[in-house]
Design brief:
The complex is a heterotrimer of chains A (167), B (104) and C (117). Chain B has 104 residues and is mostly helical. In chain B, 74% of the residues lie in helices and 0% in strands. Chain C has a single domain, classed as Methane Monooxygenase Hydroxylase, Chain G, domain 1. Chain C is 66% helix and 0% strand. In chain C, helix 3 runs antiparallel to helix 4. Chain C is flat. The chains are: A mainly alpha (167), B mainly alpha (104), C mainly alpha (117). At the A-B interface, helix 1, helix 2, helix 3, helix 5 and helix 6 of A face helix 1, helix 2 and helix 3 of B.
Chain lengths: 167, 104, 117
């Protein structure tokens, strides 16, 4: 087993373990903290995949911004902080568990049967100056997504402000 | 070549997706459902970047997709949590079983 | 991948050191609890009310605006790094991008979302 494989297994265990702890946590606040562990594991996986920029973006956006937003939202609603005791799950949770585990079993079975039958490229991607490549791509091929993104963010900002504002 | 097979990433991503699916389908709290969906989006991103790394090394489409998914996920979280907050103010609950205005 | 070894070492030290301090204190310190010791510490004052209080919505509004501009960084960083290779066209595009979001900030400001009350 190489070092890379070791890091992969460690990060995956951290990620999946935190994810399981997240969906089973009794308090939503604790669940949100476990969610941060999951996001960190995903960031490590991105870095292992030579996508260092996305790994940093994952930490910056998911851990630095979205997780904080969710934690604030939880603190704004005492309902979910665990003040009102009550079940974590709706009545249909056994059905959900069966569905999720069936889907997982099917996908994993298919992937194991497929083995390494992918058209894997020979070379690793050239990731020196990757941010520069990304910047040039944003200004040429992916110009429309670049500009549409600002529109999406503007609509999200205004919409959320209108909804959340206290009268 | 990386020493990690592509399959490993796909299997881990599939497991993460299904855990998120379970969270989204079973949680009583609307915020818990949103957190499950965030997990599913993360699993999709792992798949996109893994295929970019192993199959499409010359292009950037995989990473571009991942960045757009992250953007949309953040916008979605912002609006959804604002909705949860408005719901809590007007109905004093965020439990999805008690939000049944559209049911009969 | 090698450049991340430094980051990994930092991470390791950052986890091990605080853990050693906490576990060491837990192992070595005497444990004689009494009600006064177990009460919540708040700068020496007596605590008032419950621990789980309702937070103001302003926290959420600030986090919301932060999230939006955090994502703007993700888009503008590659543009800024590649700035020397791109021409005037890219500058105009980036200005449009930033301008659209500044319009959102202007809206938030005019609606009083930035005020702390």
């Amino acid at each position: 087993m190489t070092l890379e494989q070791g890091i992969f297994i460690l990060a995956s265990l951290l990620m999946l373990g935190s994810a399981l702890a997240m969906v089973t946590a009794r308090s939503m606040f604790v669940a949100a903290l476990w969610m941060i562990g999951t996001f960190a594991g995903v960031a490590v996986l991105f870095i292992l995949l030579n996508a260092g920029f996305l790994g940093i973006v994952q930490i910056l956006i998911y851990i630095g911004a979205i997780a904080v937003l969710i934690l604030f939202a939880i603190m704004l609603t005492p309902d979910v902080m665990g003040l009102k005791p009550g079940p974590r799950y709706t009545g249909q949770w056994p059905l959900a568990a069966v569905m999720a585990s069936t889907l997982a079993a099917v996908i994993v079975l298919l992937l194991v049967r497929a083995g390494n039958d992918w058209h894997i490229a020979d070379a690793a991607p050239n990731v020196t100056d990757f941010a520069v490549q990304l910047g040039e791509a944003f200004m040429t091929t992916y110009l429309l997504p670049f500009e549409v993104a600002s529109g999406v963010l503007l609509v999200a900002l205004i919409g959320a402000l209108v909804i959340v504002r206290d009268e | 070549m990386s020493s990690i097979p592509l399959n490993w990433y796909l299997i881990v991503a599939a497991l993460l997706f299904c855990i998120g699916l379970f969270g989204a389908l079973s949680r009583r709290s609307a915020i818990g459902i949103l957190m499950g969906i965030e997990l599913m989006l993360n699993a999709v991103n792992i798949n996109l970047v893994a295929f970019w790394r192993y199959v499409e090394v010359d292009g950037l489409a995989g990473q571009m997709f991942a960045i757009v998914v992250i953007t949309v996920a953040a916008a979605e979280a912002a609006v959804a949590l604002a909705l949860v907050r408005a719901l809590y103010r007007s109905r004093d609950t965020v439990t999805v079983e008690e939000i049944d205005l559209l049911k009969w | 991948m090698r450049e991340y070894a430094v980051l990994g070492a930092f991470l390791l030290v950052g986890i091990v050191l605080p853990a050693a301090v906490v576990i060491g204190g837990w192992l070595l310190g005497p444990k004689r609890a009494n009600p006064v010791k177990n009460s919540t510490y708040e700068c020496g004052l007596e605590t008032v009310g419950e621990t789980w209080i309702q937070f103001k919505v302003q926290y959420y509004v600030y986090a919301l605006i932060f999230v939006i501009f955090d994502i703007e960084v993700v888009y503008l960083y590659p543009w800024a790094v590649a700035y020397n290779r791109l021409g005037l066209f890219a500058l105009v595009e980036a200005l449009i991008f930033a301008g659209i979001l500044v319009a959102g900030l202007f809206y938030a400001w005019r609606k009083g979302a930035l005020a702390w009350f």
